[in-house]
Predict the 3D structure of the following.
Amino acid sequence: MVGRGEPVGYLIRHCREWVDRLISEFEPTSLQQLLETVTAKLGLLIEVIDQDADLASLVSRYLAVGEGGFARVRDDFAERTFALVLRLRKPHNGCAHVAVIDCRGSKASRKWFSIWHEIAHLLVEPQLTLDYRRTGDAHDEVERVMDAIAGELAFHPRWFDLGLGEGGRPALRAFEALRLREAPTASLQAAYLTLVTRLRTPALLLIAELALKESERRSVEGGLPAMPLLRAVFAIGSPTWVQEGLYIPKTMRVPERSVIFRVHGGAWGEEHLAAEEDLDWWESQGKRLRSMPLWVEAASVGQRVVALITPRT
Ligand SMILES: [Zn+2]
């Protein structure tokens, strides 16, 4: 178990060093190969549930070979559970643990992250004591630590870095190409936010969708109508963006003249646009953000818009 107050940074470094030793020893050439190397070394089998039938056949397959612990798996997945890790009574092909990853429905977008989250459990908790652990959406302390470790390992910087120097301008196309090449089952948001936080230049990743602001949400709860508008719902800056004090507040309304607005439910052929804009286009209740020339690239992804914002010099 993770001790209370045990420094998270220490645990992340410990796991990273363990993985880096494996990289030196086995020289995997991709994140997928790294995953295979790590699971082989840990003796961990990964079982993925894509549909209900997969769960039924998995449970009966393991029960048939005397692994009674799988009897509770079906019930546990009926609740909000993303993954489980179980210790086998009889190791199979050198593997003593099985991670069952639920990828049905909306959980599919967490697949890559969920696998690494379960790996983190095995790395941190002594293997012999880990009999059964369920990962749900309850964000307790241990789960948050595992998420932090998973975030570090699932997108190992050896493969997951755009490698742009001081002068390079990042582009969404490069983000997506790297995600598809190295971690195609990772969610776009998780992959892109990792890449942005590793940029050496100022940049902001922003996700916009139709949303209510907090006061409107309360009005709706009180029975009053409110119209959702296109707003920033997620924003994370690169370290140099944050250092420069640049900031777009959450739930701020997207300016109608921005390409972010245009690509949202826009015309065919306008799913991906880029333009020169200014930070002072963003305003709330008559107050504008400070002026700064920007380069804004926006792409429509389902009901959302993903935008990459960089200062224009
Ligand atoms: Zn967990």
User: Anything to note?
Assistant: The mean pLDDT is 89. Residues 117, 121, 135, 143, 146 surround zinc ion (CB under 6 Å).
